[in-house]
Amino acid sequence: MPEETTPTDTLTDSPTGTPADSPTGTPADSPTGTPAEAADLASAGPAPAGPAPAGPAPAGPAPAGPAPTGRGPAGSAARALGFGCLGCGGLVLLVVVALIGMLMWNASDGTDLPRVAPEDMADRAFRHSQEAYDVLGFTRTVPAGQESADDAPYNTLGAQYCYDGGALGLEDRTVDGAYGMYHHWALDHVPASRAVPGLRRLHRRLRDDGWEVSSYTEGGKGKDWTLYVRRDGGERMSFTWFTDRRYFMGGAAVPCAYDPGWTEGGEPYHPDSEAGSLTPPALLPSTPRSGPAA
């Protein structure tokens, strides 16, 4: 398949300008006189002294009112700044209180979990994978299990620990009795004619169905294709097509839940051991599509 490239335009900005205008002026005019006029002025001598100019009025009582502070507008600005700082302090306090409340609310989500059987969460995760597999248009069945060979198809379930952030959401500790179920699958020998249109179609479908696209990358020669989505409540899905290996991987994870079979104070809880006893159904192809099998 020929490599698809997207032409890119390169714009080179070359700012231009003109030299700054230089203001011009003429030298100041200096008064001139004749020699006769200068002689007349010298012979006249100094002008006769007249009455002395009036001096300052005698000081009287100061006008009533507060004494000037000497600050002027600067004093007013300082006072305004002082009041502004008091307002900023109150605002900062409100922001801090709101942040602490938000952290404590989010921290409570780490332990405020429903009690759901692992089998039900496994079905939920597998259902997301099966729906995505239908949209991708693959025509092969992926049986349950995993082969030991590299880049081999697989179809498995797993579970991981869930974490609690503590009172302020700043800790990282496991939640006893809780698990996070996920389903992983992979398919080998997937040609570009299947993977490329399938991922583009899946990207549009998930976005239209209300999933938030966290990341979507259309690769090319030597570059992998990836799609990551999530939805409120803790659901996530990811898909990767390795172009050089023609290997496609997908997965779906569902929110954490408490195992109803766990008893507080009993044996330590290990999510992997609980998921190890679960086997997913086979991934089935949707209505056959034309083109190479994948």
Describe the model:
- The protein is an alpha+beta fold and 294 residues long.
- It has a domain at 118-276.
- The chain has helices at 35-44, 73-109, 118-136, 192-208, 271-276; strands spanning 145-146, 154-160, 163-164, 173-174, 178-187, 212-217, 225-231, 235-242, 247-253, 257-258.
- The strands form 2 sheets. Strands 1, 2, 5, 6, 7, 8, 9 and 10 form an 8-stranded antiparallel beta sheet that branches. A two-stranded antiparallel sheet has the order 3-4.
- The longest helix is centred in the N-terminal third of the chain and has 37 residues, at 73-109.
- The protein is globular, with a radius of gyration of 41 Å.
Largest sheet: 8 strands, antiparallel
Distance between the termini: 16 Å
User: What's the helical proportion of residues?
Assistant: 25-40%
Shape: globular
Low-confidence stretches: 1-70, 99-108
Overall mean pLDDT stands at 74
The gyration radius over C-alpha positions equals: 41 Å
- The counted number of beta strands is 10
What is the helix tally? 5
Structural category: alpha+beta
Helix and strand pattern: HHHEEEEEHEEEEEH
In percent terms, what proportion of residues is strand?
A: 15-25%
